[in-house]
Automatic annotation (TrEMBL):
Family to which this protein belongs: Belongs to the MurCDEF family.
Protein location: Cytoplasm
Gene Ontology BP term (one): cell wall organization
Protein name: UDP-N-acetylmuramoylalanine--D-glutamate ligase
Pathway where it operates: Cell wall biogenesis; peptidoglycan biosynthesis
Primary location recorded for the protein, binned into one broad class: cytoplasm
Source organism: Sediminibacterium goheungense
EC category: ligase
Domain Mur ligase central stretches: 110-288
Catalytic activity: UDP-N-acetyl-alpha-D-muramoyl-L-alanine + D-glutamate + ATP = UDP-N-acetyl-alpha-D-muramoyl-L-alanyl-D-glutamate + ADP + phosphate + H(+)
Keyword vocabulary terms for this entry: ATP-binding, Cell cycle, Cell division, Cell shape, Cell wall biogenesis/degradation, Cytoplasm, Ligase, Nucleotide-binding, Peptidoglycan synthesis
Gene (UniProt): murD
Sites where the protein binds ATP: 112-118
UniProt entry tagged with the keyword Cell wall biogenesis/degradation: yes
Length: 447
């Protein structure tokens, strides 16, 4: 009997993870990457005797696939993808492959335009605190497929991006979380917001009445879409504007969670994560934990002692009375809006990078209220200069993390905050947002 031939496009974390799982399950595997493959991933492929090519795509070896697993970073307009589609070869994502072999394990899947990494990490932290056999996987940086292959768990807490949802077929989380939907990545969705919304809602397409769907009732885009859909899952909304019968809400300074008989209440002042946006993230995480049967004492304990993620509103240092915060993961304007919204001190804001069609008017009011100076950190800062020239008295251009930090420190007074929250991608000056955040932190430590 002929082996199922799975061709994998992309030799990064998800591609290599899928290759390892496919090989373990008896598939014939061929991995192809148009660019160079990192040495650590190349070594894994060689050690596991997996056929691969790098810095090229051999169409004859790709187009004889029974199925193709496409890494999330590869867009539909890629020529190889077009050729695969034209031939009618089924395309799946890595999370679909992982789902196929997960066995009886449960999945909590989290998506949204902003806050998904933080919420995913918090849910995982609550599950760990409660002693569950669980793993943190997906878009947060760990291959779901590799986890299933090498160290299967009873529960997977998975951050899922819209790109990963685009190519699912049967993927069905037991608990899905949709935090919010704002315009992002529209270059991948033919610049149609509706396409991006549809992609996010694929997280519930296979759910049944045995599953749960946790979503923000204060998000107009989500609510508008829900009015058009018939959903086949158990809805658990959360809100800060009104009480909900089932789900979660915040009234005054109290968070209330109600799922079946179990009720949890706690003060928002006890949350480790501060800011209105994090109140939403904490509610979503608390509801997810409750659906898993985690006791309220454990939820309270975990929510109190959670440490936020690296590069996401991460406290770096206090230098002569000036606080430095690394929010390098803010790669769109909405993320920066959330960061500014939680600022309570005069702020020197470091902005800039590769613009993704940003509309800076979204943060103009917050900048006017909270920001005393803007330090640009990018190769082309013209849009930022134009957007804020009449809003902020001081705008300075720099072209490195070190210069941006030194300039910001000079502009800040004791009691101020220097906030790196760039609202842009990082590819003009840095390898990625992690590199940008790390260089920022190194420069702060040198002050």
């Amino acid at each position: 009997m002929k082996k199922h031939r799975l061709v994998i496009l992309g030799g990064g974390e998800s591609g290599v993870g899928a290759a390892l799982l496919g090989k373990q399950k008896g598939y014939e595997i061929f991995l192809s990457d148009g660019g160079p493959i990192k040495p650590k991933y190349e070594k894994e492929l060689i050690d596991n005797q997996i056929d691969f090519e790098s810095a090229q795509h051999s169409l004859d070896l790709i187009l004889n696939a029974d199925e193709v697993m496409k890494s999330p970073g590869i867009p539909e307009k890629n020529e190889v993808v077009k050729a695969i589609r034209a031939k009618g070869i089924p395309v799946i994502s890595e999370v679909e492959l992982a789902y196929r072999f997960k066995g009886d394990s449960k999945i909590v899947a989290i998506t949204g335009s902003n806050g998904k990494s933080t919420t995913t990490a918090l849910i995982f932290h609550i599950c760990q605190t409660a002693g569950l056999d669980c793993a943190l996987v997906g878009n947060i940086g760990y291959s779901f497929a590799k986890q299933v292959a090498e160290d299967p768990k009873a529960l997977y807490v998975a951050e899922i991006s819209s790109f990963q949802l685009d190519d699912i077929k049967d993927f069905r989380p037991d608990v899905s979380v949709l935090l919010n939907i704002t315009e992002d990545h529209l270059d991948r969705y033919e610049y149609k917001f509706e396409n991006y919304i549809n992609s996010k809602f694929k997280i519930i397409q296979n759910q049944t009445m045995n599953d749960y769907f946790i979503y923000c009732e204060d998000d107009e885009v989500i609510m508008e879409k829900l009015r058009l859909l018939t959903i086949h899952t158990n809805p658990l909304p959360f809100s800060m504007k009104h009480e909900v019968k089932k789900g979660g809400y915040i009234k005054g300074d109290q968070m209330m969670l109600r799922i079946q008989e179990e009720r949890v209440s706690m003060s928002i002042y006890d949350f480790a994560l501060k800011g209105k946006h994090n109140n939403y993230n904490t509610m979503a995480a608390g509801i997810a934990a409750t659906t898993l049967g985690i006791r309220k004492e454990k939820i309270r304990e975990a929510v109190k002692n959670f440490h936020s993620l690296e590069h996401r509103m991460e406290f770096v240092a206090m230098v002569r009375g000036v606080e430095f915060i690394n929010d390098s993961k803010a790669t769109n304007v909405n993320s920066t809006w959330y960061a500014l919204e939680s600022m309570t001190k005069p702020t020197v804001l470091i902005l800039g990078g590769t613009d993704k069609g940003n509309d800076y008017s979204l943060i103009a009011d917050l900048v006017k209220d909270k920001v005393k100076a803007i330090v640009c950190m990018g190769l082309d800062n013209s849009k930022i200069l134009e957007a804020f020239k009449d809003v902020v008295p001081v705008i300075v251009e720099t072209d490195s993390a070190k210069k941006a930090v030194n300039t910001s420190f000079k502009l800040a007074a004791k009691g101020d905050v220097v906030l790196l929250s760039p609202a842009c991608a990082s590819f003009d000056l840095f390898k990625n947002y992690e590199d940008r955040g790390s260089q920022f932190k190194d420069a702060v430590k040198e002050l």
